[in-house]
Design goal:
Blueprint (H helix, E strand, L loop, with lengths): L39 E6 L3 H10 L3 E7 L3 H12 L4 E3 L2 H5 L6 E4 L3 H13 L3 E4 L7 H14 L3 E3 L10 H9 L6 E7 L20 H5 L9 E3 L5 E3 L20 H14 L6 E9 L4 E2 L2 E2 L10 E8 L5 E5 L5 E6 L2 E5 L4 E2 L1 H4 L10 H5 L10 H14 L7 H20 L3 E4 L4 E3 L2 H5 L14
Parallel strand pairs: 1-2, 1-4, 2-3, 4-5, 5-6, 7-14
Antiparallel strand pairs: 7-15, 8-9, 10-13, 10-18, 11-12, 13-14, 15-16, 16-17, 18-19
Helix pairs in contact: 4-5, 5-12, 6-8, 8-12
């Protein structure tokens, strides 16, 4: 099928000189792709809320030519909103990957599909923007990293907080400049998980291929309920993250953002961020046996948790909990600061007025790469910069998985109700065969990840 012209999107004029950057503590970089660069074509795989929310940013940098989803309703809506009705539409992502005229893909499917599609995309010669959390399990992360190294494809994970210039990177720059001293404790607030009533079995909506949506996950009935106030509960669209079968609840949702910044902060302080254990308490709305929920008619991820992560250096503890403000509190022996998506506060922040950060402080925490825009804009811009130069983007699969493994370990800790010990050198859970077996999941026949 030939690729049609997409609707005109707002376009960014790239500067010809990538090295001509201006950096100040409150202003972003400007940068440009080489003057000869042509706009690439990309496909959106997964046309739900995250897909349609992030793809318009990608359209500033590349032409969206194809949409893929197992729900006809998603396809029609996405085509209308994003492409003026002119996109090529697919139900099977493999047809998208077979197209030689598509350079990169945005993968915005539910978490349990990320790894399979991403691996096949890299092997098909595509670069990718993949939503977080990158994987459903620890072992999937090992597969993704291996294939990325084998293929050399550029993969940007959608942890756009890594490209937040005014808040998160500024916080990391303050830490790296020694303004907090030696870090002692980091508290990560990621809110409580969701509750549901008993959700009855229900037929999927017309045009929604439920079997295909499940893919690698076990074959189960579709469930759906709308309460009198209009709130919906389901094991499918929009609510999949509250089921361990498809996601990891808050621990891999907000955790994949805030634990990420916390671990970058430990490294910025020059301290060891190799995890060694995760322990604490958690509460679920269903009972578990050997780490497996005993009921399958309501949300089963942890709704309450208070977990401590220890690291090889032994000098800092990372506390992940549901009952404090959403964000990250860094506490050192010389100061403390709090950062989230709305604010950056603390005496070290106030001190910048009289004693600004060095001019290169933000550049250093952004690996010396230029920053254009902020948050999602900057994150996509960084992907395009990295594709042009065939370098690792700011949120590469390797550093992402080191952080995400902590979130996965936290989930295993919650499900088993005991401390989990980790060997970073071998990337293995130690001293607990049942916990170690939960580093992977079986795939349903026909949906295995090959190789």
């Amino acid at each position: 099928m030939s690729a049609p012209n997409t609707a005109s999107a707002s376009r960014r004029r790239f500067l010809a000189q990538a090295g001509a950057m201006a950096m100040a503590a409150t202003a972003p970089y400007a940068f440009g792709a080489p003057a000869t660069a042509q706009r690439r074509r990309f496909a959106l795989i997964g046309v739900g809320g995250n897909g349609t929310g992030t793809a318009p940013v990608g359209q500033k940098f590349a032409d969206l030519t194809a949409l893929c989803d197992v729900d006809v309703g998603h396809l029609d809506r996405g085509n209308r909103l994003l492409c003026g009705g002119k996109a090529d539409l697919y139900a099977d992502y493999r047809e998208v990957l077979a197209r030689g005229d598509i350079d990169l893909v945005q993968i915005s499917v539910p978490d349990h599909w990320h790894t399979k599609i991403l691996i096949e995309a890299m092997r098909a010669g595509k670069d990718a923007y993949c939503e977080k959390p990158l994987t459903l399990t620890i072992d999937e992360g090992k597969q993704v990293r291996r294939v990325q190294q084998e293929t050399g494809r550029v993969v940007q994970v959608g942890t756009q907080q890594r490209s937040s210039f005014n808040l998160f990177n500024k916080a990391l720059a303050i830490i790296a400049d020694g303004r907090l001293g030696k870090l002692k404790r980091i508290t990560v607030g990621i809110d409580a998980g969701a509750w549901s009533p008993e959700i009855p079995v229900a037929e999927p909506a017309k045009g929604f291929d439920w079997e295909r949506w499940l893919g690698p996950a076990p074959l189960v009935d579709h469930r759906f309920l709308k309460d009198p106030k209009g709130k919906t509960f389901t094991n499918g669209h929009t609510q999949f993250r509250w089921w361990y079968e498809y996601s990891g609840g808050k621990l891999t949702d907000w955790g994949a953002h805030h634990v990420d910044i916390a671990m970058l902060g430990i490294a910025a302080a020059g301290q060891n961020n190799d995890p060694t254990s995760v322990g604490g308490t958690a509460e679920h709305y269903v009972e578990f046996k050997d780490g497996v929920p005993t009921r399958h008619d309501r949300y089963n991820t942890a709704h309450a948790f208070n977990l401590d992560v220890t690291f090889a250096g032994g000098d800092v503890v990372l506390n992940i909990r549901h009952d404090v403000d959403n964000g990250i509190l860094f506490e050192g022996d010389a100061g403390r600061l709090f950062v989230n998506r709305g604010k950056l506060v603390g005496k070290p922040v106030e001190g910048l007025r009289a004693d600004p950060l060095p001019e290169d402080a933000l550049s250093k925490v952004y690996r010396g790469m230029p920053i254009e825009g902020n948050d999602r804009d900057a994150h996509w811009a960084n992907l395009m910069y990295s594709i042009e130069r065939r370098t690792l983007p700011i949120s590469d699969v390797h550093s992402h998985m080191k952080m995400l493994n902590v979130c996965h370990l936290a989930g295993i800790c919650c499900r088993l109700g005991r401390t989990i010990h980790w060997d970073q050198a071998t990337e293995q859970i130690t001293g607990d065969p049942l916990a170690a077996s939960m580093m992977s999941r079986p795939y349903r026949a026909g949906y295995q990840i090959e190789g």
